[in-house]
Amino acid sequence: MDTLWCVLECIVPHAVDFISVSTVGLEASPVVGTLVGLRANEARYFKKGYSYVFTVECASIAKTITDWVHSILNEERHIVIFSGPLEVPCSCSRKGAESRSGSARSVIYSQSF
């Protein structure tokens, strides 16, 4: 049952609640406590500043946006991140990499270091 739940969590995007913080989607990281706090802060920023509900999905589904962010980091800043991302904001992946919308920093901080 746990495996099925993990698969469903990865397929279905979920809203990040910054009031009751959850580790859903970040369990694979050795620094889960830090990532949870950063993700909650990001959700609070978008809710307070833009009245936008911050929604994330599994990075394996949003391959286009993670490739786009990695290429920008590599080409413009010469930064190479060897670990894979855990989550991506849905606004990024739904609109595609061509629109360049959403928060690229969310892809970065969700890395499992």
- Structural class comes to mainly alpha
The strands making up the biggest β-sheet line up spatially as: 1-2-3
The helix fraction, in percent, is: 40-55%
Number of helices: 5
Radius of gyration: 14 Å
Q: Provide mean pLDDT, rounded.
A: 76
| The number of domains | 1
**Percent of residues in beta strands:** 5-15%
Task: Tell the overall outline.
Answer: globular
Q: Spell out the helices and strands N to C.
A: HEHEHEHH
- What is the number of strand segments? 3
Low-confidence stretches: 1-8, 93-105, 108-113
Question: What is the makeup of the main sheet?
Answer: 3 strands, antiparallel
Features of this protein?
113 residues, mainly alpha, disordered C terminus
Describe the structure concisely:
The protein has 113 residues and is mostly helical.
